[in-house]
């Protein structure tokens, strides 16, 4: 931890990074361990994730909120999954086992969702989608990150974010149609 803080020049950023680490280190380790099933590999994943978080400190304004927690969990989960792909003779964990990782038990401040039931149904429909679509939609719709911020956080291009968002919105519309929620003309911009 001290090594990572040493590369930060700004004292405010050092304090912010330290607070983020203290607030989310257990969540990050839990997420990584649930994917990698190895404490040492999980610690490596947390270290790599923390480096990416330091690179994206400007995206975090409030440390103790669902938006920050979601970003941290998605970053450590993606890094853990990448590590898992590179380990020979290991099976990937099914998406069904991972979807509980991002579930929030706290109330999330979403202005355009009228009721808690609608929000729960939206989360359910999002969770049924491909993992890449789920991550992009959560960051965009739920946590209100911009395309550029999502690209930086996930380490992908802006064009990739736009393409995934477009496909994810279409897939979400189909899920909402199955639930009888919409007729396909609504837009999640």
From TrEMBL:
Domain RNA polymerase sigma factor 70 region 4 type: where? 121-172
* Highest taxon, organism lineage: Bacteria
Does the record bear DNA-binding in its keywords?
yes
Matching entries from InterPro entries are given as: RNA_pol_sigma-70-like, RNA_pol_sigma-70_dom, RNA_pol_sigma70_r4_t2, RNA_pol_sigma_r2, RNA_pol_sigma_r3/r4-like, WH-like_DNA-bd_sf
Give the UniProt keywords, A-Z.
DNA-binding, Sigma factor, Transcription, Transcription regulation
Q: Which family does it belong to?
A: Belongs to the sigma-70 factor family. ECF subfamily.
> What protein name applies here?
Sigma-70 family RNA polymerase sigma factor
């Amino acid at each position: 931890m001290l090594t990572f803080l040493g590369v930060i020049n700004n004292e405010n950023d050092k304090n912010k990074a330290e607070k983020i680490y203290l607030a989310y280190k257990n969540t990050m380790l839990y997420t990584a361990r649930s994917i990698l099933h190895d404490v040492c590999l999980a610690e490596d994943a947390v270290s790599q994730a923390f480096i990416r978080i330091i690179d994206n400190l400007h995206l975090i304004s409030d440390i103790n909120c669902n938006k920050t927690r979601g970003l941290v969990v998605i970053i450590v989960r993606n890094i853990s999954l990448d590590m898992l792909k590179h380990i020979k003779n290991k099976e990937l964990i099914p998406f069904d086992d991972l979807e509980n990782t991002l579930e929030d038990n706290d109330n999330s401040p979403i202005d355009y969702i009228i009721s808690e039931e609608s929000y729960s149904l939206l989360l359910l429909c999002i969770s049924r989608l491909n993992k890449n679509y789920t991550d992009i939609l959560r960051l965009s719709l739920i946590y209100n990150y911009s395309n550029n911020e999502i690209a930086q956080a996930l380490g992908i291009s802006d064009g990739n974010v736009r393409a995934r968002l477009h496909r994810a919105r279409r897939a979400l519309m189909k899920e909402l149609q199955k639930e009888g929620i919409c007729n396909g003309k609504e837009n999640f911009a």
